Amino acid sequence: MRRQGFFFAWAVALSLIAACTGGNAPDTSSGKLRLLATTGMVRDAVSQVVKDRAEVSALMGAGVDPHLYKATQSDLGKISYANAIFYNGLFLEGKLSDVLEKAARKRYVIPVSDGIDPALLLHADSTTAAAATDSTANHAAYDPHIWFDVSLWSKAVAHISNEMQRIDPPNADFYRQNALSYIAQLEQLHTQIKTDLAAIPTEQRLLITSHDAFHYFGRAYGIEVKGLQGISTVAEFGLKDISQMVDLIVSRRIKAVFIESSVPQKSLEAVVAGCQERGWSVKIGGTLYSDALGADNTPEGTYIGMLQSNVRTIVNGLK
Length: 319
Ligand SMILES: [Zn+2]
Known about the structure:
Strand order of the largest sheet: 2-1-3-4
Number of strands: 8
Mean pLDDT: 88
CATH class of the largest domain: Alpha Beta
Bound molecules: zinc ion
CATH topology of the largest domain: Rossmann fold
C-alpha cells in the first residue's frame, strides 16, 4: 500500500515536471533537443542558432510550396517526435494551422514572425484576401514573405535565439553568441544586396514573378515588384491579369521576367507569349527561390546562398 502511494506521488511529480517544461524533456538517447521547422528558411535560421546542440529537421524541402502544403502521415510522426516546432507564421503555412495548434498543447510551437514588430509588416493585398474562398481569407492580414527583407529576418533569428534560451537555459550563452555572429553576417548581406541592385538602371527596376512573394524585398532594396498571382499561390490568376502584365512589360520595355522554384512556370510563359505577339521580346530571366530554399548541400540550400543567387539572377536579367 505504501509502495503504491509512493509510485502515485512519483507519477504526479513527473507529470508536474512535464507540464512545467511543455511536456518535453530533452531526448534521452542523444541527449539533444529535437527541433522541427516547417520551411527550409526557418530550418536554416534555427540551425544557425543551435548549431550541433540540437537535432534540426524540416517538413518542407526544396521546391515545396508552403501555401499549399498539407501534413502527411509521416509529418504527424515528426511533429510528435519534436520537442519544439518553429514555423514562419502570418498564415504562410495556412493548411498546417490545425495541426500546429494541436501540436502546441504538448510542445513548444513558435512562429518566428512573432519576433517582428507588426508595424514593420506589410498588409496582404485586400483583393487577394477577398479572392481566397476558404478560411484563409480571415487570417491573411499580413504578407508572410518576411525572409526577403534581411533586416526583418534578423529579428526572426533573434526571436529564435530568445526562445531557445528559454527552452534550454544551460545552453543560453551559446545560442546568444551564435545568433549575434549570424546577425552580423546578415547585416553585411543586407548592405551587399542594396549595392548589387543599384547596378540596374532605375527605369528597369521592375521585378515580375509568378506570385507576390517579393514585396518585402522590393521595399527593402528599392525595386518595384509585380506578381501574376496574389500573395498566396492559393489565389487563381486570369486572362485579365496576363494582359495587364503584358501591357506593363511592353510599355516599360522590361527585359526579363522570373520563374519561381516553388511555383509552376506555365503562367509566366503565357506572359512571354503575349509580349511576343505585341512585338516585344521579354526573356525568362531564370529561376528565383521564393518560398523554398535550393537543394541541400548546394549554396542555394542556405538562406544567405539563396538570396545571393536571387540577386545575381535579378541583376543579370534586368540590367
Ligand atoms: Zn508565397
